Amino acid sequence: MKSIISSCIIMLTVLQIAAQEKQEIFFADPTIYVQNGKYYLTGTGGGKGKPGFSVLESTDLKSWASPAGTKGPAYMILSKGDQTYGTDGFWAPQIFKANNTYYLAYTASEQTALAQSSSLLGPYRQKEAVPIDGSAKNIDPFVFKDDDGKYYLYHVRFNKGNYLWVAEFNLKEGKIKPVTLKKCFDQTESWEATPNFESVPIMEGPTVFKLKNKYYLFYSANHFKNIDYSVGYAISDSPYGPWTKQKDSPIIHRSVTGENGSGHGDLFKGLDGELYYVYHVHFDSGQVSPRRTRIVPVVKQWDAQASIYKFSVKRDEIIVPVLK
Description:
By secondary structure, the chain is mostly beta strands. It has 2 helices and 22 strands. The protein has one domain (about 1-324): 5 Propeller (Tachylectin-2, Chain A). It is globular and about 50 Å long.
């Protein structure tokens, strides 16, 4: 294990030295949307002091800039007070499209919210500046559409810890169906609770997709300040579970990436047809924030005996995205 960690550290050090000539990107909880031959990156903390969310554009995942035709170092797609919910804590966005409308699910003031736009680049606004479910604090939204057209909101709710929940979601109304609300699972695995940073149970940052009638839920565990913040996955036959956590988790961890706090991101399909996971890492070995953005190719392999896909990452192909 030590040799693996050492080689990862050497590899990332080389990448970081190469990136020093250009400015690294500091989106935490990042997500990437792909459209018309381009990648669009957003996340927590990208507004350069402005509450809300900015976006960057790329064609190769390596070099990024404000979208073509826009001005300024931080092009905002959603801003505080511009027909949007929340006053602070703008975290963990997700962009998706439905019925020719673009949506931005996000966290603000420890509530999930949903804004929309006719354009990918926004501005994203709400007809009424309200949260999705104001009955309790909830964060880290991920909206998933099933094959039957139903939508589900995966998110985090608080109860002496951060736990993943799911509920059927009415996209038109922007509300969950409360009677369908269900907790996904408890903290059960040793990797989900390491002693390097003491905290209540924390599981967050969900991404869900479906392959061959199986549901795959990727999530992060441990406190984000923990050096062992990492990503694992679970599988189910239903969007509500029960979920079977996979024994090869975590697939993204400091022992794999060579950097502390590797987690909380999103899966996406690249222009080359391959899967990637975008995530954040600690600033360095002694400092958590501002968190740096990373992208890693994901390997999907069919397990015929178990009739499921298994996932791993290409640890030697981690991308350090930079500004042009």
